[in-house]
Design goal:
This protein is mainly α. The chain has two domains: 68 residues; 28 residues. The chain is built from four helices and two strands; from the N terminus they run H-E-H-H-E-H. Strands 1-2 form a two-stranded antiparallel ribbon. 12% of the residues are buried.
């Protein structure tokens, strides 16, 4: 069994930010890049200049991640609400018929 590597502070923060954007589509590539940059920062062994460049690129990627992508259609939520309403109405009708 492969040993799990610990998740560093940068990666943890990026994962949290990405979860906050769960209502968007089309952000998969930016997510992958942001996670890779965060993993490299967490791994350490970087020269100060390289660390600064990676941190700046991670910041730019996160800004772009928040900017791009489209919100998932509201219709998805409306369809779900409509379906629940229909189920509730059927249950009420069944209860009325039994009474």
């Amino acid at each position: 069994m492969a040993e799990r590597r610990p998740i560093g502070a940068h990666e943890r923060a990026v994962r949290k930010d990405v979860r906050a954007l769960a209502d968007r589509t089309g952000i998969e590539a930016y997510t992958a890049v942001a996670l890779e940059l965060a993993k490299r920062l967490d791994a350490g062994n970087l020269e100060p200049g390289e660390q600064a460049r990676l941190a700046a690129e991670l910041r730019r990627t996160l800004v772009e991640l928040g900017r791009v992508g489209t919100k998932k259609p509201v219709a998805d939520n409306l369809d779900e609400l409509r379906q629940r309403r229909q189920q509730r109405k059927r249950r009420q009708e069944q209860q009325e018929q039994q009474a």
